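Chapter summary example: a protein plus guanosine-5'-triphosphate.
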Amino acid sequence: MDNPVTKDNLGETIFSLSSASGRAGVAVFRLSGPASAESVKHLTGRSVPRPRYAALRKLNSQQGDPIDEALTLWFPGPASFTGEDCVEFHTHGSPAVINGLSAALLSLGLRQAEPGEFTRRAVQNGKMDLTEAEGLADLIDAQSEGQRVQALRQMGGGLRDLYEDWRERLLDALAQIEGEIDFPDEGDIPDSLSHGAYAPLGALASEMSTALEDMGRGAAIRSGLDIAIIGAPNAGKSTLINALARREIAITSPEAGTTRDVVEVQMVIAGLPVTLSDTAGLRESDNAIEAEGVRRARQRAEEAEITIYVVRPGTTEFEPFLVESMTKTDIIFLNISEGYEHFDLVNAPTSLRGNLMEPNGESGVHTRLEEIVRKHYSVGQDSGLTRVRHGDCVRRAQEAILRAQGQLGIAPELTGDDLRAALRALSELAGESDIEAVFDRIFSRFCVGK
Ligand SMILES: Nc1nc2c(ncn2[C@@H]2O[C@H](COP(=O)(O)OP(=O)(O)OP(=O)(O)O)[C@@H](O)[C@H]2O)c(=O)[nH]1
Ligand SMILES: [K+]
Ligand SMILES: [Mg+2]
């Protein structure tokens, strides 16, 4: 970013086209900053309308050339989205009007907003915390129902409620421990004070563990699930992906080793976007290209949230190691051809059966995928942590709490320092510590105008 907003240039008045660019019925411009009301006066020749009421006003350039007629809204700070004085102009959505108004605002000395700058100001002015701003960014990016619901919850303060509760309890523990520091000579009272903090700190640390363990769910909902199809050559992996996607995205043939590159398709399963990947058949190969394909196949399976192991009795040897590395969200699909109706896997978890040569032979796999997504990746069960950043902060808070717990009654000063470190980590989660680098990274991914 050329011109990142810092506390020093918060005073600048910014503007942006907040609706999508291009020809449209209506275009929405937003202004934020101290010169907002002044800009209305310049453009309309009149003072601002009544706060939060729409008024139809003619807009003219400084040279007096008409630009458009626009619904004009005035949101005086601090009761506005950014906390500053804000204005909205709803103009006609033609490129000529958009360019004309942009030029007029620039000539008044306003600056084009950076991506996410309105929201950044809202956070810096205490209108929302950073996790709520992230929820808002996720909502703008949401493509599926699951993502929308999760984003709305985070935007509504779901994660804030969680860490505020943690913070209160940390402050209670800190108060107990500081009692010990303040009254070191009063017999065994201080001792009982700090020991009283032992169990609450343990409970906090374990809640944080649970939230961290659950984080994969929230992150998967946010970014979509990866599902990998793997198995021996000719097991029917490509046939399966084509059936699930209902189109011919991968080449199938009787030749073992047909698929080499990873072939991906995007789908929505039970309301969640997923990326389904077909991979090379697993076998030892002297061919360098095929061997690379096999390496990529294994890597995909390792990274995937769900792995589907396709086994076709009668074709190639079944790799028992696959089953050993199975997780509870993996699926074994037995692709049963004629003559193998009674085949079953020994020492393997229950598997699904089907015949991919028959119509809807893949339907069992589809149903099972829906069940897994609903059971393990539905919104509402997740901890509220959806980003690596959240995990980092909570992990640091938890480590500091465990250190503090270990020193209770031994070194009260150190305990206090660790609890304060835990509080700082939670403040960072909230975005209160205002670390420019973190802000730059998060807000640069916003769209312009938000
Ligand atoms: N008889 C029979 N043929 C099948 C079945 N499933 C797939 N085939 C056929 O077996 C061949 C191999 O299927 P593919 O889907 O290419 O197998 P693959 O696992 O992708 O194979 P590679 O990419 O080579 O690892 C194709 O000719 C399919 O039409 C089945 O259930 N029964
Ligand atoms: K094949
Ligand atoms: Mg294949």
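Key point: Residues 234, 253, 255-256, 258 surround potassium ion (ligand 2) (CB under 6 Å).
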